[in-house]
């Protein structure tokens, strides 16, 4: 059975999320470009479960991950206009559930952008000033999981 296609109109909330996302996206990429100029040629690119670096690579290799997470954030933000494409374990039926699913995707887009900045910072800045740690990255991923769980519970309760 195909999910019902819901028409999502532009709202003040949506516009605010999009403007904040765009401003932060530009700020994150300005930061990445400036950090790339100052970073050494080889930076940590992978960390173990404790947060210690286990792999090093060219500073430009970090661009691959940050480009992917930036694109992922843009896709998440755009998916708010197509809530029938959002894949969650809760059957979405009511307008309130759709609103929560849309809001979840918008919040996740901002947290993915925070992940982009944190990955860049951890590898390009923290890696050049002593021992880097993946703890900030793990914290952002934890926030993302919390957002997903909390919103799914709210969506379930809104049925």
Explain how this protein is built.
This protein is 62% helix and 8% strand. The model has no long low-confidence stretch (mean pLDDT 87). Strand 1 and strand 2 form a beta hairpin. It has helices at residues 12-38, 62-79, 95-125, 135-157, and strands at 42-47, 53-58.
User: What is the average of the pLDDT values?
Assistant: 87
Radius of gyration: 18 Å
Assembly type of the chains comes to single chain
- Percent in helix: 55-70%
- Determine the structural class based on helices, strands and strand pairing: mainly alpha
Low-confidence stretches: none
Number of helices, where a helix is a run of at least 4 consecutive DSSP H or I residues: 4
Report the principal-axis shape.
elongated
- Tell me the distance between the termini: 19 Å
Count of distinct strands: 2
Order of secondary-structure elements: HEEHHH
Estimated share of beta-strand residues: 5-15%
With strands numbered from the N-terminus, the spatial order across the biggest sheet is 1-2
């Amino acid at each position: 059975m195909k999910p019902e296609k819901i028409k999502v109109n532009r709202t003040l909330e949506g516009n605010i999320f999009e403007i904040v996302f765009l401003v932060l996206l530009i700020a994150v990429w300005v930061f990445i470009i400036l950090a790339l100029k100052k970073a050494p040629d080889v930076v940590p690119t992978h960390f173990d479960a404790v947060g210690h670096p286990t792999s090093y690579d060219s500073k430009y290799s970090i661009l691959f991950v940050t480009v992917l997470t930036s694109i992922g954030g843009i896709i998440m933000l755009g998916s708010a206009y197509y809530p029938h494409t959002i894949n969650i374990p809760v059957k979405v039926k009511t307008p309130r559930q759709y609103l929560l699913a849309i809001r979840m995707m918008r919040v996740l887009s901002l947290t993915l952008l925070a992940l982009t900045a944190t990955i860049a910072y951890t590898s390009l800045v923290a890696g050049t000033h002593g021992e880097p740690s993946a703890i900030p990255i793990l914290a952002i991923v934890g926030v993302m999981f919390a957002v997903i769980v909390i919103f799914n519970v709210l969506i379930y309760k809104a049925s």
